[in-house]
Amino acid sequence: MFAMQLKAHHTPLEWVELPDPEPGPDEIRIRIGACGVCRTDLHVVDGELPHTTLPIIPGHEIVGRIDKLGSNVMGLSLGERVGVPWLGHTCGHCYYCTHGMENLCDHPLFTGFTRNGGYATMTVADARYAFPMGDKGEDKDLAPLLCAGLIGWRCLNKAGDGKKIGLYGFGAAAHIITQVLRWQGREVYAFTSPGDTQKQDFARSLGAVWAGGSDELPPEPLDAVILFAPVGALLPAGLKAIRKGGKVVCGGIHMSEIPAFSYDTLWEEREIVSVANLTRQDGLEFLKIAPEVGIKVTNTPYALKDANQALDDLRHGRFDGAAVLLP
Known about the structure:
Blueprint (H helix, E strand, L loop, with lengths): L1 E4 L8 E4 L9 E11 L1 H7 L16 E8 L11 E4 L2 E3 L19 E2 L11 E5 L4 E2 L6 H4 L5 H12 L4 E5 L3 H12 L3 E6 L4 H9 L4 E4 L8 E6 L6 H8 E9 L12 H4 L4 E4 L5 H14 L5 E5 L3 H9 L6 E5 L1
Parallel strand pairs: 10-11, 10-13, 11-12, 13-14, 14-15, 16-17
Antiparallel strand pairs: 1-2, 3-4, 3-8, 3-17, 4-5, 5-9, 6-7
Helix pairs in contact: 3-4, 3-8
């Protein structure tokens, strides 16, 4: 197999040839059709997440077909298309696993972070954490659903059922969740980097009722906002954008330092909540409704060898929607 491998933080990924991985008893080997490029991959490359396994093959929005089955695998078949998300394994016996919070497991494994991911032609995954994807749709359009979609869905559930929802950072997750919100009959208010009229136009084209810079206030107080951009200064900005009793949901795995803000910005029962990882139930729920919503993913495809360029383009916001690597 061929892969783009991270050998040291703050360095480019290297093109390497490795032996085809052999699945363990509970694992499947997958021939990859597409792998999405996520901002979390940038955090891994930049060394912003603790306990990264190095060397590592990044990537956790994987779609491909099963090439080999482990001896204990049930319910999946050779040639079946599956998706592999960020959550790659949990212990099953800690407090969180036994209380319906496997996303907070004390001893997890994460795809593309502590176990090899999808910036490759082939990978191995724990079969219990892979989702059947069916045969409808192209691999490149399904891959971003495995993180941008799933984390967006979990954030949306945390945000509650308010009518007016703000989204800070209009990238892969926001452009998917905007479509879900519109399908649910809710209003989307999109916040981009100040002056980024291209992203604002993109948000409006997907149904946002308002789009502006993150330094602006919306035309009216919002019921909740979701922060997809990993910028700490957006947290107090989000608090100022919501009504009394509203909620700010922090959707990233990493965020820059949050500046101090006065208590009156939080007062009147405004809430702040973070989202960590996802559960398999999140995946089952979201992948069930995605076809009903008719989500159309805006993709920029890159060859696998061009993963470094894709990451750089993501870092600088050079494309709308999502980026996907194609082996």
